[in-house]
Amino acid sequence: GALYVNLTNRCDCACVFCLRHNGHKGSIYADNLWLEHEPTRQEALDNLLARDFSQYRELVFCGFGEPMYRTDDIVWLVDELKGRFGDKLPPVRINTNGHANLILGRDVCPELKGRIDTLSISLNANNAADYVALCHPIQGEEAYQAMLDFAKESKTYVPHVVFTVVDKGTDPAEIEESRSIAQSLGVQLRVRAYIDS
């Protein structure tokens, strides 16, 4: 029931579990998500305006990369859609790695206020070393703290901020440690089941 919007293939990570990097090219997910070209904001808007938003419970900016590379365009699109649909626009979510401030070199959190209803941030690990080993961010260990800081600050501007972790036979103690990290920052934790595609 959600409409997922992919605006970019660009990403600052090379996560070991990502379809982009683990040999799943050709899977239904990779074929459906990969963009041959990044749509302009106007192309994206035209596509969205052709849809019946009453059919969707949520509008989700995800990406087969990191959607926050296109923060300015997401903000513009949401403003345009809210201007046209008002409260008939379903809630808006961004699925992100939480590196927007690092990627763009500025604090984007205030720009999310009144536009984004939910931020779903991939926590992925409980410390910087494990995070780097799993996600391979180009910024190194700095990316882990930046992600935590992004989550903490964004809850001032976004009603629902959620960390996600994937349970692939994960030790329950690790899940509880993730939950403690989330609670210490005042955000929720969502444990997602691993889907082998």
Describe the 3D structure.
The protein is an alpha/beta fold. Helices cover 36% and strands 16% of the residues. The protein is built from seven helices and six strands. The protein has a six-stranded parallel β-sheet with strand order 1-2-3-4-5-6, covered by helices on one side. Strand 3, helix 4 and strand 4 form a beta-alpha-beta unit. Helix 2 packs parallel to helix 3. It is globular and about 45 Å long. The two termini are 21 Å apart. The relative contact order is 0.14. The model has no long low-confidence stretch (mean pLDDT 90).
The share of residues in extended strands comes to 15-25%
Helix content: 25-40%
Shape: globular
State the order of secondary-structure elements, H for helix, E for strand. EHHEHEHEHHEHE
Averaged pLDDT: 90
Number of strands: 6
SS-based structural class? alpha/beta
Rg, rounded, reads 17 Å
Major β-sheet, in short? 6 strands, parallel
- Give the N-to-C terminal Cα separation: 21 Å
Identify low-pLDDT runs: none
Spatial order of strands in the largest sheet: 1-2-3-4-5-6
Distinct helical segment count: 7
